[in-house]
């Protein structure tokens, strides 16, 4: 009886050791994506480029705003002297120019955001390629991203289940779509 218990204990130990040696350890790492963008020279250069461009465009707009302010100040001084009809006409012109300046400022901001956004998106794409290449060269199974957006930045292709999930959701959508069509046909036949 003791021999049987000892033999079973040895057998269980061997099985446990075999399972331990068969389990694969994954090599993983992470990247603080916020820090990457903050400390990237290329990202800093892009930021500096658009700060300078903003300053240049802002200077031009600021000159127009100063001219408008000067005209508005003169308008208030001359309004009573030139009469009500002149004041209404000039006031409408000043309001129109103020609105145009506001639209111009919004347009400049939108343009700068679009241009810088496109460049930063391109930069992020190139960084993802670099991270993927680095992961392959260093033998990583996963590289995770932390920071403002958490995501997997690299994974071996055999861990990708995207195609399977797409098939599941597409099949589900098709079956729902077919059920709706059958229901519509039955309702039409009843009429």
Automatic annotation (TrEMBL):
Keywords: Signal. SUPFAM superfamilies: OmpH-like (SSF111384). Residues 172-191 are annotated as: Disordered. It comes from Flavobacterium capsici. It comes from the Bacteria. One of its GO terms (molecular function) is unfolded protein binding. Transmembrane segments: none annotated. One of its GO terms (cellular component) is cytosol. Belongs to the Skp family. This is OmpH family outer membrane protein. One of its GO terms (biological process) is protein stabilization. The keyword Signal applies. It holds the Pfam family OmpH.
């Amino acid at each position: 009886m003791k021999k049987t218990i000892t033999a079973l204990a040895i057998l269980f130990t061997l099985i446990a050791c075999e399972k331990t040696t068969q389990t694969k350890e994954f090599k993983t790492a992470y990247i603080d994506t916020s820090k990457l963008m903050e400390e990237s020279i290329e990202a800093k250069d892009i930021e500096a480029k658009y700060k300078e461009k903003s300053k240049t465009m802002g200077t031009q707009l600021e000159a127009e705003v100063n001219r408008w302010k000067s005209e508005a100040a003169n308008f208030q001084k001359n309004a009573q002297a030139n009469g009500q009809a002149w004041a209404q006409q000039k006031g409408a012109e000043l309001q129109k120019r103020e609105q145009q300046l506001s639209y111009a400022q919004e347009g400049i901001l939108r343009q700068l955001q679009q241009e810088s956004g496109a460049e930063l998106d391109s930069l992020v794409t190139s960084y993802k390629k670099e991270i993927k290449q680095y992961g392959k060269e260093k033998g990583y199974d996963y590289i995770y991203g932390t920071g403002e957006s958490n995501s997997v930045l690299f994974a071996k292709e055999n861990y990708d289940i995207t195609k399977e999930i797409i098939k599941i959701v597409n099949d589900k959508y098709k079956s729902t779509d077919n059920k709706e069509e059958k229901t519509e046909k039955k309702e039409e036949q009843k009429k």
